[in-house]
């Protein structure tokens, strides 16, 4: 077996700092970038640290980069970095809004690494993991989440065959989850139960329970009514009407700034309840979609949800 390249703690630190946004990006000249794009796509993310000549050359000669790219430098793989990584299964795929997610299987641990979508996300995801309402969060590189891959079926895939009992359990669990989040001043802001595309952020697993995934547009309202522009942007992003316009790129930067300023003022005079209510509206919409496939279950979910959910 060929010897495996080793990285010193300093080298690891340097790499992680580049990916964690702690060092200025320094791209190489066009020609080198082009040839790397052609010959070794796994190396492309490292182009930003082309200034680190020795380290870059080392990465270039590391055969594992081809398959694992920068994912191999995440803390959860540190114990395996002195091996050929043959024990590690990885699949990297595109996602709807974040760009990509990498699924990693090692030592019976099933994990996901994905870029964060907002400055609030790491804190909210950590809270959700601790509360048992979202995936556990592991040590990571800043600007990325490394989390437990939750087994289970998306609600949207089982809603059509669901009986009354299961429906009540789910409705009541969703109410509990939202109550926990709302008490902590968090709006999930993306409670997709069932959507037209068959997607869902609610995962149902008999052994592991019922949990939410994807806190990408969730809002930490602990500073309410003082929200940052970026937070107000997330409020707008999931609002009926304007949200769809923003998501489809139909609103120009100037118009968006005006909307953000207007919404910021509006939020200043609103009770927090109205922002939290976004999640209830999402649940109601999801139940509406479910009712077209399984009206009995949809009614049972909504009744159980309403009976259990409390917003002070
Ligand atoms: N922790 C996780 N456990 C199980 N599946 C996940 C997890 N994180 C992401 N996924 C899967 O990957 C998809 C995309 O991830 P997500 O965080 O929703 O990104 P995006 O916002 O780009 O859709 C999810 O809809 C889900 O199917
Ligand atoms: Mg998603």
UniProtKB/TrEMBL annotation:
SUPFAM superfamilies given in the database record: Protein kinase-like (PK-like)
Superkingdom of the source species: Archaea
The name this protein goes by in its record: Protein kinase domain-containing protein
Native source species: Candidatus Bilamarchaeum dharawalense
């Amino acid at each position: 077996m060929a010897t495996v390249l080793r990285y010193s703690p300093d080298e690891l630190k340097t790499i992680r700092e580049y990916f964690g946004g702690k060092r200025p990006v320094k791209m190489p000249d066009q020609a080198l970038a082009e040839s790397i794009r052609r010959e070794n796509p796994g190396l492309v993310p490292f182009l930003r640290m082309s200034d680190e000549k020795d380290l870059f050359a080392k990465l270039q000669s590391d055969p594992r980069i081809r398959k694992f790219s920068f994912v191999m430098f995440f803390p959860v793989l540190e114990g395996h970095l002195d091996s050929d990584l043959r024990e590690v299964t990885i699949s990297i795929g595109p996602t709807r809004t974040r760009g990509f997610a990498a699924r990693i299987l090692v030592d019976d641990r099933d994990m996901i690494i994905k870029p964060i979508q907002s400055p609030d996300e790491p804190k909210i995801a950590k809270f959700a993991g601790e509360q048992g309402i979202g995936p556990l969060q592991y040590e990571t590189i800043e600007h990325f989440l490394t989390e437990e891959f939750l087994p289970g079926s998306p609600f949207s895939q089982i809603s059509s065959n669901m009986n009354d009992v299961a429906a009540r359990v789910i409705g009541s669990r969703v109410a509990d989850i939202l109550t926990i989040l709302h008490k902590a001043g968090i709006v999930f802001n993306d409670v997709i139960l069932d959507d037209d595309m068959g997607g869902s952020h609610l995962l149902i697993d008999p052994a592991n329970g019922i949990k939410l995934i994807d806190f990408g547009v969730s809002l930490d309202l602990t500073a309410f009514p003082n929200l940052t522009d970026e937070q107000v942007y997330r409020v707008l992003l999931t609002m009926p009407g304007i949200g769809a316009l923003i998501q489809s790129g139909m609103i120009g930067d100037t118009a968006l700034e005006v909307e953000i300023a207007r919404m910021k003022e509006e939020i200043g005079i609103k009770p927090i309840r109205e922002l939290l209510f976004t999640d209830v509206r999402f649940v109601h919409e999801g139940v509406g979609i479910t009712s077209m496939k399984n009206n009995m279950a949809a009614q049972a979910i909504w009744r159980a949800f309403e009976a259990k959910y409390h917003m002070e």
